[in-house]
Design goal:
heterodimer; A: 416 residues; TIM Barrel; 2 domains; 11 strands; B: 385 residues; alpha/beta; eight-stranded parallel β-barrel; 15% strand; binds flavin mononucleotide
């Protein structure tokens, strides 16, 4: 067939990825209680031939400070497996990937949920494995607090082994450190054999687990060099597990802001930035830095020295590195971060954005991208209407689906 | 505080601080139906003492609810139902006025199931394909954590615009624990206490957000009113859950709480907590006794007995005619019946083509006004503690 083409995921997130998205005059502010909104987004992405929609998840509030939380749209939303099961009945081709935690689920139960989603959708399901780094979530599942990073990944490794054992119909019966399962899975396989395994951890433990088990890896990288380093690192780890580089698709996040001219795109971006309250920006930054009292430091001063996180190690490192590199104050960093939580941001015309994506795709830094519209539905509509056709014109993206299942879209083997 | 409030002081209930009990006492609820209007005194409602027979009201002419239950997990061996078959069946049942479909789904128990679906994901998919019919799914208290399950059902209720129910049992399936990392299992008593605690937490999480908590005020930058979001702060014997739920208040306030597989010892709990009780298959006279008992205990617990519905389960066998089922329903004294349909395409077709028209002729599945499942069942909103 033709040359290698990029994969595209639509990353769904409340009213949009920008922290102030919901305040945009045209943003669908009731997204979190409106299933029709999500059906419309999924259909837009499907019409644009996206490989998948992707739901993030946290089993708790995102922000402990209620005053801050009440200025964001992220405290309420749909539980994603239910949401995607509803979308399964309202779409035909697009992949449906949901995040679920290895810390607060049982493998047998989650195996059933995703197997069912996979069957409901005719083989379009995927699971994004996360270990859940937030103490707010932990408090909804017992009184012992957030488990240390290494313990969480230990449990995650075992979880992944058990769930794939169930999906791949390996010998029944498992009795291990954290889990035990007696019966084989009581739900038959879908047309794609088993749900696609996705992973987004970027710490050493995270990358290792991804190399061992993931079909798709989401990542966050600002610069080409960072993206390339991550890409090479992860692909380099595959051989140790008897896997080929092509067995895993690496899809960094990208937050595009597209318009007919670069100036227009920039103006759209600036207008959104104006809607961020400072305390909200700083709080969001704090949560990713795993520090509770960033607000204590002068907002126009530099980022203080921080201890290494027990939460999201990789994102903390990324933020600190950017602050140092660009010499940013806390306020500047917070504002920048509020746009896409540390993911790559591209502002420009369809041609400029396509150029940037093409450079990373052809330069060996990405197999595709997880697209993170700033607000919904407007910025998804703009990307689908402007950037996707440009990518198609260049032969970089499909004009129609080649197959029916998510594995077929992604060019992944069926598990044996 | 009136009489009713004083009756609610069990240990488990005291753990739970729920703000909505006030609605009871404000006398907003119309206590009516077969019971007749109930005397409401100034300062709070007072139910006039009644005998068990009063709770049944006049039997002729009352609404007979019709639920269909589909035990998808009982499909073994032969071809299982496809989504299209289930979807088609549910739409036809909806068109005929069936009140709800109950999707049962137990973990491996005896012969392994070959159903391709799990119940909650299945009703999520059915929710966007239907408009009126109630969608009830079983979910186990061993497979999930309370926070997760509360999120799932609240989401399903929003997706379905208020037509969802959670079918839960406090009786243990002895084989189940071994698949959820509890090979030692639970004693029946531990299981029961744990399940009750689980249910209490879920009900508490469901009302984390007040009705008008979401402001969506773009100009002022207030998405929600922080004073209208409530923590659960629950610490019990088995679980500790801070809350709040990260799903908005659902259209029914709380999805319908359906309890089934109940032993007599669970009637007290069910009569306080459940919106709907499904009685296992039994003789009409036994069903009548169980139904009366549940409603009497609901009354004793300070509830209007009309806020709890009891249905009795019967097989949907083709040779059954509507008259027999009507007689069964009426003599059982229940609010309606649940017909268990075999999860095979031929059985579904037979039900729709033959039995359903019969049932309608005999007064089942009369269309009820209202949009939510609670409306259909005449239950009103759930303001109970
Ligand atoms: C695109 C992307 C999406 C993510 N989505 C979630 C999510 O929904 N829930 C979550 O708890 N973590 C999410 N994460 C965080 C990671 O999966 C991971 O848990 C985190 O980075 C901590 O792991 P690490 O220390 O190995 O990096 C996401 C990360 C990326 C890059």
């Amino acid at each position: 067939m033709s040359a290698r083409q990029m994969k595209l995921g639509l990353f769904l997130w409340a009213t949009g990825h920008h922290i102030a998205a919901w305040r945009h005059p045209d943003a669908h502010v009731t997204a979190g209680i409106d299933i029709d909104h999500y059906i419309a987004l999924a259909r837009t992405a499907e019409a644009a031939k996206f490989d998948m929609v992707f739901c993030e998840d946290a089993a708790g509030l995102r922000e402990a400070n209620v005053q801050i939380a009440s200025q964001t749209s992220r405290s309420i939303g749909f539980e994603p497996i239910s949401l995607l099961s509803a979308l399964a009945a309202q779409t035909e081709r697009i992949g449906l990937v949901s995040t679920a935690s290895t810390s607060y689920n049982e493998p047998y139960a989650l195996a059933r949920m995703f197997a069912s989603l996979d069957n409901l959708s005719g083989g379009r399901a995927g699971w994004n494995l996360v270990t859940s780094a937030s103490p707010i979530e932990a408090a909804n599942f017992g009184a012992t607090g957030l488990r240390p990073h290494a313990d969480r990944y230990e449990r995650a490794r075992e979880f992944a082994a058990v769930i794939t054992g169930l999906w791949h119909r390996k010998a029944a019966g498992y009795d291990g450190e954290s889990f035990s399962v007696r019966d084989p899975l009581d739900i038959p396989p879908s047309p794609q054999g088993a749900p696609v395994m996705v992973q987004a951890g970027a710490s050493d433990d995270g990358k290792d687990l991804a190399a061992r088990t993931a079909d798709v890896v989401f990542s966050a990288a600002q610069t080409f060099e960072d993206a390339k380093a991550f890409y090479d690192d992860l692909k380099g780890r595959l051989a140790a597990y008897g896997r080929r580089p092509d067995d895993v698709k690496i899809m960094p996040g990208v937050a595009p802001m597209v318009a007919a001219t670069k100036a227009e795109a920039q103006a759209k971006y600036d207008a959104l930035q104006e809607l961020i309250p400072d305390d909200v920006g700083v709080a969001l930054l704090s949560s990713y830095l795993s520090i509770s009292d960033l607000g204590r430091y002068p907002i126009d001063g530099p980022l203080p020295e921080l201890p290494e996180s027990e939460g999201m190690k990789s994102r903390q490192a990324l933020v600190i590195e950017q602050a140092r590199r660009d010499g940013l104050t806390i306020r500047e960093l917070a504002r920048y971060f509020a746009g896409a939580r540390g993911h790559w941001r591209v502002v420009g015309t369809a041609e400029q954005i396509a150029d940037e994506l093409q450079a990373r795709f052809e330069g060996g830094a990405a197999d595709g991208f997880n697209v993170m519209p700033s607000w919904f539905p407007g910025e998804l509509d703009a990307f689908a209407a402007l950037v996707v056709p440009e990518l198609q014109r260049r032969g970089l993206f499909r004009k129609d689906y080649e197959g029916r299942t998510l594995r077929e879209h992604l060019g992944l083997k069926r598990p044996v | 505080m009136g009489v009713l409030a004083n009756r609610q002081g069990t240990q488990q209930q005291r753990n739970i601080q729920e703000p909505c009990g006030k609605r009871w006492l404000a006398g907003k609820w119309q206590l009516g139906g077969p019971l007749g209007p109930v005397a409401l005194r100034k300062g709070g409602p007072r139910l006039v003492a009644r005998t068990a027979a009063d709770f049944r009201g006049s039997r002729m002419g009352r609404i007979m609810h019709l639920a269909v239950s589909l035990d998808i997990a009982s499909a073994t061996g032969q071809t299982s139902l496809t989504f299209a078959e289930i979807d088609g069946f549910v739409r036809k049942a909806e068109a005929a006025g069936v009140d709800m479909v109950v999707i049962s789904d137990s973990g491996p128990n005896g012969e392994p199931s070959t159903s391709p679906f799990e119940a909650t994901t299945l009703i999520a998919a059915l929710a966007t394909a239907t408009e009126k019919i109630g969608l009830v799914a079983s979910a186990s208290t061993l497979a999930h954590q309370p926070y997760t399950l509360a999120r799932r059902f609240a989401s399903l209720d929003i997706i379905s615009h208020g037509r969802t129910g959670w079918n839960v049992t406090t009786a243990q399936n002895p084989r189940e624990a071994a698949n959820f990392s509890r090979p030692e299992g639970f004693s029946d008593d531990d299981f029961r206490r744990r399940a009750r605690e689980f249910i209490n937490i879920v009900r508490l999480l469901w009302i984390s957000w007040e009705h008008d908590a979401l402001l969506f005020d773009k100009a002022s930058g207030r998405f929600h009113d922080p004073d209208k979001m409530h923590l659960a702060n629950f610490t019990g014997e088995f679980f500790s859950v801070r809350g709040p739920l990260n799903v908005a208040r659902s259209p029914q306030d709380r999805p319908l709480l359906v309890m089934s597989g109940l032993a007599e010892t669970e009637f007290d709990f069910a009569s306080r907590r459940a919106d709907l009780v499904l009685l296992d298959k039994r003789e009409p006279s036994d069903a009548r006794a169980a139904c009366d008992e549940i409603k009497r205990r609901a009354y004793d617990a300070g509830r209007d007995p009309m806020t709890i519905r009891v249905l009795t389960v019967a097989d949907a066998r083709p040779e059954r005619d509507g008259g027999i089922l009507e007689a069964l329903c009426r003599s059982s004294g229940c609010d309606g019946i649940v017909l268990a349909v075999q999860p095979r395409a031929a059985a579904l077709e037979d039900f729709v083509e033959r039995l359903l028209p019969e049932l309608k002729r005999h007064g089942f599945a009369e269309t009820q006004p209202g949009k939510t499942l609670r409306d259909r069942l005449g239950l009103g909103e759930d303001g109970r503690p």
